[in-house]
Q: What sequence folds into this?
């Protein structure tokens, strides 16, 4: 920004020539070639004859092995005084170099993961890298910068040359901003990986929550989403989060980095990745009411990771090995309790109604049951989530969160409302903390000491054991009725799923896989565009009134006539009339939760303290 700053830069550039204890990395964002960036490194002092230079196989929070070395090419090593350095490729991520003490400079090209040609093992975008010349550079630092084996605990200094008007959004605080060049310093490799940096033309908003300063940075290619919109959306949420965490946010500074994509992602997914002082989001660029709630849900989740695993974790995570990652047994804690808290906080603070919260729980119950293997003990699934149980991993967001819900309810019940999972988290964070890891095998003992024997039994049977979660018993503790399955005879719309075609303004049958007896009589087909329903034109605006009205007032034997637009075998469009007499259909409903009006004092108290409702 100022001339004095440029002077500091010059000094740093001079220093690079002399090797010292630090890594000096150089990146020029103004010279993208073939969608690649060239990275140069002047290494720290290396005294051994031989060294291994590595890129991470995996990084914390992703629970997937990505081998970031796959995206590196043109790897070159220059020796001091023209000396030759021997380079031996050990595996996808590692290079053996000798003599190490004669290395002057390493250079290599990095291709970004977001639009790579390497189609196997696609990197989940929030943990990947983006090189979009002149527009956006998403530096998830582990994808660009490597390390020497056993030499992670030393300064990393990044000199980044940037396009005019570009701004570095990051939680890193040792950052010298220049007009054309920034210098960032991080004190070790773990913290470098923990600190993504997003470069783009700035759209940032800063908000203050108590003593915490929060940066919101947005890249939205078509300017559909703004940092201002997100800041307004998140402020209320962060205030509720502070309240939930006991009055204050446990950080001085935090950065939310948002990339909004205007095309589908390579992985097909969207989402976010957490870090200690920031989180990185990859979300679709859309202007919808749903997006606001999605941003809240995802942000609440990532932000709650400040509690776990960032402040409560086992050795596998605390002493994370980037190239030989070992999994912990306790994903139910790191991901499950985080996901639970993200939703529970919203109902407790009144941001959502309790029936919305129940819907979230019911969806998770159904997903966990229909899409995952419920007989694998959760601790075992977690331990082998990188290999044997890879397909079960995402159940941490479903059953994992439900384990959190069960624990919270039980704690409220046995403590006469006084103690819940957030109190337990606080006690565990006091006992362990950011720099002190627990032993995987000690966690249940430590939780038992802080709580009740019943909690220990629950953990043994339903988390380490293969017994299904005891929903009925759990909901009874807080005066709620729970019915696992109910079969009723009902009037239905045939069991179709309906979507909307904005081009024709028609409702469309999108799924007929669950057609019931009535739907089969009507002979719905997928892609039928519904024109009229009992002679009334059907639109998005009147669908609730017309379809809801039919369900409520139709009687067995009434006639239903539906006109649809359908393509025939030759692809020609024509109107078809579907007709059937209304009949009752057996419908199975699962996971029904409602308020028990005969709840006892103890149940009422536990419910009030759990959800804030009477
Ligand atoms: Zn998470």
A:
């Amino acid at each position: 920004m100022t001339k004095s700053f440029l002077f500091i830069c010059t000094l740093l550039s001079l220093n690079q020539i002399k090797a010292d204890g630090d890594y000096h990395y150089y990146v020029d964002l103004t010279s993208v070639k073939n969608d690649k960036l060239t990275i140069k490194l002047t290494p720290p002092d290396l005294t051994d004859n031989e060294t291994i230079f590595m890129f991470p196989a995996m990084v914390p929070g992703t629970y997937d092995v990505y081998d970031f070395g796959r995206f590196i090419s043109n790897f070159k090593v220059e020796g001091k005084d023209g000396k030759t350095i021997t380079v031996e490729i050990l595996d996808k991520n590692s290079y053996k170099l000798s003599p190490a003490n004669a290395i002057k400079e390493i250079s290599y090209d990095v291709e970004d993961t977001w639009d790579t040609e390497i189609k196997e093992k696609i990197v989940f975008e929030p943990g990947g890298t983006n090189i979009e010349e002149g527009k956006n550079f998403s530096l998830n630092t582990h994808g660009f910068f490597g390390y020497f084996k056993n030499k992670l605990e030393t300064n990393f200094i990044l000199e980044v040359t940037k396009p005019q008007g570009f701004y570095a959004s990051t939680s890193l605080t040792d950052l010298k901003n220049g007009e054309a060049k920034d210098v960032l310093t991080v004190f070790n490799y773990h913290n470098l990986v923990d600190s993504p940096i997003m470069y783009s033309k700035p759209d940032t908003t800063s908000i203050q929550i108590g003593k915490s300063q929060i940066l919101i940075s947005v890249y939205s290619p078509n300017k559909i989403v703004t940092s201002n919109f997100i800041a307004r959306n998140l402020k209320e949420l962060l205030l509720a989060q502070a309240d939930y965490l006991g009055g204050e946010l446990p950080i001085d500074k935090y950065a939310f980095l948002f990339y909004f994509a205007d095309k589908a992602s390579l992985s097909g997914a969207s989402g976010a990745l957490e870090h200690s002082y920031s989180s990185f989001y990859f979300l679709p660029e859309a202007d919808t009411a749903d997006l606001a709630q999605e941003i809240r849900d995802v942000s609440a989740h990532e932000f709650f990771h400040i509690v776990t695993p960032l402040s409560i974790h086992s050795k596998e995570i605390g002493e994370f090995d980037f190239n030989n990652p070992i999994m912990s047994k306790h994903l139910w804690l790191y991901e499950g309790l985080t996901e639970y808290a993200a939703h529970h906080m919203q109902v407790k603070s009144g941001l959502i109604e309790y029936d919305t919260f129940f819907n979230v729980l019911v969806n998770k119950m159904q997903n966990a049951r229909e899409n995952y293997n419920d007989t694998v003990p959760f601790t075992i699934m977690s331990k082998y989530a990188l290999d044997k149980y890879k397909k079960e991993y995402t159940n941490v967001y479903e059953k994992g969160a439900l384990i959190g819900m069960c624990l919270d309810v039980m704690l409220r019940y046995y403590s006469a409302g006084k103690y819940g999972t957030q109190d337990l988290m606080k006690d565990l964070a006091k006992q362990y903390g950011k720099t002190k890891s627990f032993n995987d095998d000690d966690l249940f003992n430590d939780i038992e000491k802080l709580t009740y024997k019943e909690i220990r039994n629950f953990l043994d049977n339903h988390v380490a054991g293969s017994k299904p979660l005891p929903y009925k018993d759990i909901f009874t503790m807080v005066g709620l009725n729970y019915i696992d399955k109910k079969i009723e005879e009902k009037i239905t719309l045939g069991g179709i799923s309906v979507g909307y075609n904005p081009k024709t303004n028609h409702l469309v049958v999108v799924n007929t896989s669950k057609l019931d007896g009535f739907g089969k009589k009507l002979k719905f087909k997928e892609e039928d565009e519904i024109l009229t329903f009992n002679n009334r034109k059907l639109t998005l605006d009147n669908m609730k009134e017309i379809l809801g009205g039919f369900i409520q007032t139709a009687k067995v034997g009434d006639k239903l006539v539906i006109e649809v637009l359908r393509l025939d075998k030759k692809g020609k469009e024509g109107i078809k009339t579907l007709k059937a007499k209304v009949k009752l259909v057996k419908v199975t409903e699962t996971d029904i939760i409602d308020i028990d009006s005969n709840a006892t004092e103890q149940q009422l108290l536990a419910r009030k303290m759990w959800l804030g409702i009477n």
About this structure: Residues 245 and 387 are 35 Å apart (CA to CA). Residues 227-244 form the longest helix (18 residues). Residues 1-19 have pLDDT under 50 and may be disordered. The pocket of zinc ion is lined by residues 274, 301, 305, 335, 338 (CB under 6 Å).
